[in-house]
């Protein structure tokens, strides 16, 4: 699947976690990542405003975004925490069947591991940047699992 | 699965065309919405450029242009609609909002055809059209509607 | 008055009768053998709860009756049947509660050592009660352990399974000493999702589990000191950090042990 980067944002749009899992992930400074994260957060809000079939409250945010060389999958939890992940995309071929579902599953697993390793850590303050080694190790396991499955 | 709207913007953010097909919810002020759309897509385009994957050294000697190497936004899917985006090298942006089920069908290809076969033919080649003005050519609109309504994703 | 099958003098029925008695709020002596009297007390209760008492008695009279709550009543933990309780608690709920416990303790101490001591103190209170509960709830009657190895084995198997759903990894003796032992555990349950920030130094939340061990041993009559260490085994292949609960028994316990050993 070629998972590249994984971002977690708090409900105010501030970046609380960012990890790169591939050489192909862009190499940016920490400031750049924070900037990108808040851009993404405001994009989420605007996307809902621009819905042609419903008002903003009823439209879910960005589910996935495809560019020529990468694909992005995002989810918003009920608490307002946003997570998005970028992965490789081959512009010549269409995404493999079930690729979208698989990445949606990846985000679900990542979110469940967030509720475990981050929210059950007594030393974590909500909405603050996350520093949890057990969570990092568990995320690497999840990324490996999804990288092994198909293209 | 259907087509909701079509927009054409120029590089300065001016909306040259806003065509409604099957849209069910319209905002009170379309001008406002167009500004939001242009601004958001501008930010999204920059986001994609920044997030573009770092290219490993090309070992097969394929010379890729700068434009080919960078990531260009193609579409995004939100909760209840999808938005397809195509930008020409001149900064012209073609945007189509559709329903969420379009797997197997390349809507970007449609936008490219609209640009190449309809816009270039009937608007650019139109001697009476000044670039930068809203498109009012009846011939163009007629051909455009016929094309869109003939698309397999249009119901 | 409901007829009871006297052949089935089940513990359950007795408890239910005493429960009905409690709720009827009449003070009557309940002798162990006075079962029909107990039933009579239930159905002869004041009008307000007569229906309840009769219902309980009827329910008890049915063969193999289980304590089924009647509408509007809440069952006391002592009224619940003993046998075959799964005893499972959601891990998420438990760990979230532990999270709050640590945060609560953190607000009331001023040093890392004091925080560990406070967690151990809370664990002590848990341990005291855990021993009573496990002994009361076990299906077969458990012998009271009087020897050190006996109680330690009991802790490592029965109590660990009751508290954490698994056995502790190992129980070892320190050198030749009779008084010092340690229990090893690779992954203490409370540390499953904990990541200690650098400025807390060597804090180990498994001090809570160490406190539980301390409480159990004290309640069983074995005075001791328990401290929690982490041994870093990363040099040995296949093992990571191991948490050790180091137990040092007091002199009286050692002397008693020697006397019993003969």
TrEMBL record, chain A:
Places the protein is found: Endoplasmic reticulum; Golgi apparatus, cis-Golgi network; Golgi apparatus
Alphabetical UniProt keywords: Endoplasmic reticulum, ER-Golgi transport, Golgi apparatus, Transport
Keyword match Mitochondrion: no
Biological process terms in GO annotation: endoplasmic reticulum to Golgi vesicle-mediated transport
GO CC aspect terms: endoplasmic reticulum; Golgi apparatus; TRAPP complex
InterPro entries the UniProt entry points to: Longin-like_dom_sf (IPR011012), TRAPPC (IPR007233)
Entry annotated with the keyword Transport: yes
PANTHER family xrefs: TRAFFICKING PROTEIN PARTICLE COMPLEX SUBUNIT, TRAFFICKING PROTEIN PARTICLE COMPLEX SUBUNIT 4
Complex formation: Part of the multisubunit transport protein particle (TRAPP) complex.
Similarity comment: family membership: Belongs to the TRAPP small subunits family. TRAPPC4 subfamily.
Descriptive protein name: Trafficking protein particle complex subunit
Native source organism of the sequence: Porphyridium purpureum
TrEMBL record, chain B:
Coiled-coil annotated residue ranges, if any: none
GO cellular component terms attached to this protein's record: endoplasmic reticulum; Golgi apparatus; TRAPP complex
Record keyword Iron present: no
Main location: endoplasmic reticulum
SMART domains for the chain: Sybindin (SM01399)
A Gene Ontology biological process term: endoplasmic reticulum to Golgi vesicle-mediated transport
Listed SUPFAM superfamilies: SNARE-like
Keyword annotations from UniProtKB, A to Z: Endoplasmic reticulum, ER-Golgi transport, Golgi apparatus, Transport
Pfam family, any one: Sybindin
Compartments (UniProt record): Endoplasmic reticulum; Golgi apparatus, cis-Golgi network
Subunit structure: Part of the multisubunit transport protein particle (TRAPP) complex.
Protein name: Trafficking protein particle complex subunit
From TrEMBL, chain C:
Places the protein is found: Endoplasmic reticulum; Golgi apparatus, cis-Golgi network
Keywords associated with the record: Endoplasmic reticulum, ER-Golgi transport, Golgi apparatus, Transport
InterPro entries per record: NO_sig/Golgi_transp_ligand-bd, TRAPP-I_su5, TRAPP_component
Record region (Disordered): 1-27
A cellular-component GO term for this protein: TRAPPII protein complex
GO annotation, biological process: endoplasmic reticulum to Golgi vesicle-mediated transport
Record-linked CDD domains: TRAPPC5_Trs31 (cd14943)
Superkingdom, taxonomy of origin: Eukaryota
Family matches, as Pfam families: TRAPP
Listed SUPFAM superfamilies: Ligand-binding domain in the NO signalling and Golgi transport
Subunit architecture: Part of the multisubunit TRAPP (transport protein particle) complex.
PANTHER family: 41-2 PROTEIN ANTIGEN-RELATED, TRAFFICKING PROTEIN PARTICLE COMPLEX SUBUNIT 5
Similarity comment text for this entry: Belongs to the TRAPP small subunits family. BET3 subfamily.
Protein name, per record: Trafficking protein particle complex subunit
Organism per entry: Porphyridium purpureum (Red alga)
Lineage start: Eukaryota, Rhodophyta, Bangiophyceae, Porphyridiales, Porphyridiaceae
